[in-house]
Structures are given as C-alpha cells and as structure tokens.
Amino acid sequence: MKLENLDKLKKILSIVLLIFWCFLIFYFSNQPGSVSDVSSGVIVNIIKKIIPGNYHTITFIVRKIAHVSIYFILYLLTFNCFKRFNVSKYAFYFCLLYAISDEIHQLFIVNRSCELRDILIDTTGITLAYLITKKIRKNKEKLAKI
Predict the structure, then answer these.
(1) Which one in 15, 69, 70, 104 has a CA-CA gap of 20 to 30 Å to 119?
(2) How does 43-66 read in b/e, with b if 16+ C-beta sit within 10 Å?
(3) Can you give the pLDDT of all 146 residues of the chain as single tens digits?
(4) CB neighbours of 104 closer than 8 A, spacing ≥ 6?
(5) Residue 44 belongs to what domain range?
(6) pTM above the 0.70 mark?
(7) Under 8 Å CB-to-CB from 112, ≥6 apart: which residues?
(8) How far is it, in rounded angstroms, from Cα 134 to Cα 146?
(9) How many domains does the chain have?
C-alpha cells in the first residue's frame, strides 16, 4: 500500500472513530435519567460488594469518573483526527464546546439536567488528555534532537 493511501486511510479512520465517539456520548446523554441510573447502578452494585460505602456517594464517584474518562478519550480521538488535518491546536476547544453542548442537550431529556459541575468535570478529562499529549510531543521532540 502506498504511503499516501495509508495516510488517507488513517484520516478516514480517525474521522470515523471521532464521529462514533461523539454519537456514543450523545446516545448516553439522550437516555432518560431512570435509564442512566440503571446503567450506572450495575457498576455501583459491583463496587459496593468490593468496597462498602454509601450508595449515593459511590454512584456520584462512578458517574464522575465516567465523565472524566469519556472526555479524556474524546480529546485523544479529537487530537488524533485534528492532527491529521494540521489543526490539532483546536482539539481542546472542540471538546470543550462538545461538553457544553452535551450538557445543554440534557436539558431536553426527561430527568436530566444541565450541570456546570459536569462541564467542569468533563473539562478535567479533556485537560488531563491534553497535558499527556503535550508531554508526549515534548518528549518526541527531545528524542528527535538527539
């Protein structure tokens, strides 16, 4: 396979993965609160068997870790995609706008709400991924100079 064909394939794959992840986030956010509660409840019940604690506290922690993780992955996929089009500097802003739009979207879903706290938690995942990718790029630049 020619190098240019491989690059095209990588671009297409990065776009498909990013779109898939955005739709996955939308799908989860589009679920009514009761369905979302059941989904996280399964994980909470497993954790509660291992680590005893308050059900509501564990639920809160599980949900917030999910937010951080989902948006961490969103940033990585966005950065990978945007890098292929030489616009990686906009990856952080894209993810932040997506987090905001996701919370606004939840205003229209039964038993869901728009929470500034969730946007900040999503931003934590985005920021962690940003810092890690920045560190990796700096290390690659240092190695390239050697």
Answers:
(1) 15
(2) ebeeeeeeeeeeeeebbeebbbeb
(3) 687 889 999 999 999 999 999 999 999 999 988 887 777 778 888 887 888 778 888 888 888 999 999 999 999 999 999 999 999 999 999 999 999 999 999 999 999 999 999 999 999 999 999 999 999 999 988 888 87
(4) 114
(5) 3-145
(6) yes
(7) 29, 32, 33, 36, 106
(8) 19
(9) 1
